[in-house]
Amino acid sequence: MSNDKIMQEKLSAFVDNELDELETRQLMAALSQDATLRRTWERYHVARSALHQDSEILLVANVAEKVAQQIESEPSRAGSYRRQQALRVVSTLALAASVAAIAILGVQRLNDKPESSAAALVAGGKPAGQVIRSGTTRWDTKEPGAENALNAYLVEHNEFASTSGIGGMMPYVRVVGYDNNNK
After folding, report:
1. pLDDT tens-digit profile of 40-93?
2. What are phi and psi of 64, to 5 degrees?
3. Residue 3, Cα to own-chain centre: how many angstroms?
4. Whole-model pTM?
5. Of 73, 108, 130, which residue constitutes the final position of a domain?
6. Which of residues 55, 73, 91 is at a domain's end?
7. Taking Cα atoms as reference points, which of 152, 155, 181 lies closest to residue 170?
8. Burial 26-61, CB ≥16 within 10 A → b, else e
9. Quick one: the chain helix, strand, coil %, rounded to 5?
10. Tally of structural domains, the chain
11. What integer is the mean pLDDT of 150-159?
12. Which residues span the domain enclosing 162?
């Protein structure tokens, strides 16, 4: 008996579900290699369905080959998956860089606020500018109570003007308030 005849008999037994496990594996390996054997297998299934009067008879020839051609003709999704992974990594890194930049700028903004105490200014070691002195009287008023109130107002204003965030020269100028009458 020829090899083709033996394979056809095994194929017929396979269609009728009469092969053991080892022979089934051998036949499946042969089916994956031989296109003629696959076409014979399709014809056997059509004949079996007709004999058993199944309602659905497969009339399309070469189904396995057509399915294999369709699978090969479809574009590969591996490139798009890699692109999605790369975009996900890049977007995560961009988000992390943005958060880090905001944190750094926020810390710098907190550190840039001028200090309100005179001791901190002295410890800062900034060079002193030119001292301008006017006469002994600071205010041109005849009321001594008004001079004290104006001096207190200037000192208080100087303390809070530097913390308000408004720029200008006031953070660099310190007002020394004193009252000649209290000495």
Report:
1. 888 887 788 778 776 665 555 566 677 778 888 887 776 677 888 889 999 999
2. -60, -40
3. 61
4. 0.32
5. 73
6. 73
7. 155
8. ebeeebeeeeebbebbbebbeeebeeeeeeeeeeee
9. 65, 0, 35
10. 2
11. 78
12. 118-182
